[in-house]
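Reply to dn_fold:

You asked what the input looked like. This is it:
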Amino acid sequence: MITLYINENKKTGHINPEIYGHFSEHLGRCIYEGLYVGENSEIPNVNGMRTDVVEALKEMKVPVLRWPGGCFADEYHWKDGVGPKADRKKMVNTNWGGVTEDNSFGTHEFFELCEQLGCKTYVNGNVGSGTVQEMSEWVEYMTLDGVSPMADWRRKNGREKPWKLDYFGVGNENWGCGGNMTPDYYAQLYRRYQTYIRCYDKSAPIFKICGGANADDYEWTDRVLHECFRSPAPAQAHGFMDGLSVHYYAGVEKGLHKGSATDFDESVWFNTLSRAMNIEEVLIRHSAIMDQYDPEKKIGMMVDEWGCWHDVEPGTNPGFLYQQNTMRDALTAGVSLNIFNKHCDRIKMACIAQIVNVLQSVILTEGKKMLLTPTYHVFHMYKYHQDAQLVESWLEGTGKIGLQDEEMVPDVQESVSEDKDGVLTITLNNLSPEEEREVEVVLTTRKPSAVEARIVRGRMQAYNTFEEPELVKEEAFTQIRMTDRGLSFTLPACSVMMIRVKQNKE
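and this is what came back:
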């Protein structure tokens, strides 16, 4: 028996909705065919945005969307993507497949998409191959409600009022595809570039994000913060940043071969999940470095790329990173989101890579067809954590499972939150591919008055296809018993469960 203890009287942090964010890069069929089909497409759309995809994402409650990259951001010149579409310059996407893009999806289209989704906006600027002036003028184009060359150009291109730019990233992966820079050099560039990200509307501040480390590169975090916090800098500048990013992918083997997305055994299952669980150590160690410079936690940690990275599907363009999505990916999403919840005192955003048709997508498309992946259903169930208060919780009676000592994982993992209406959301993951677990939930003071639950489960290799789009789906789970202490149920093998608990007020 595993016991989940919940101290509903102790709130330990606020879960930013942006922890459930998403990432859309000009990569493969993410933008074109996935999110955007053009105004003249036979596929139903609103101003070029696929209606079926947009509606599914709205139902999932996307809080923020990151664009245009990724590696693409540091070769993207925004002026080529505005104005009449017939006049826009074509470009070669050198990072992803060498395809030619017509720039029909640019700044105006991105904000149109975000307006349809009702989500916040996160734009990544070009530091690797762009200039300070280019970045500064982009911010002016997007946000200035006044008379200026860029604001006037925006109006000429059909947008009278400025947009709300919530987050702005100064470069992307500048340790790699964003320029192969050293941390000291990037930090010096960051200080310079961010200076010219002007906030024209003081009532709508732009949250500035500094480019952070790749996984466990702790030296990068330390050196960047050291350079950004050194004098001369006013104390209120606080390192000239509001957020510091970190990227972490589970399941990435060294070299080109990363392993099949669908054809794997238990050893690969545990290897991937142990890598997914290891993100917690990575975040704790980066956070400890941040604490040295920022003990008050004014700077948010932004995990703005994370997820599973497998081999592409056979027969697809290797530069398009199109992969299937199984219960292994669902569990990876479940445990990662629980970890982010538990560290919400520092983590203020996380963006899974990527939203449609690329890497660990929540949606796949093929022409007019669309399907929801197992990962989609996890995000759909977990949406109740958004903007809720993290509640103290812990498990007793759990064990370690796995085939190798260095890849052991807990059999069950959780997080708990309480929303503004006092409803508890419990999310649980059973990482065992074969064994169910008996679970008792114990509440500290209050008793449950009503309970409902949803679950995603299946074989570890199970996934949805366009021929069988609902093989893995979210379902109601009704085998939960209310007790004097809380709840009791059997947690199926290889599953992600969400439980909503209304509590008696006494």
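The first helix runs from residue 51 to 60.
Hope that clears it up.
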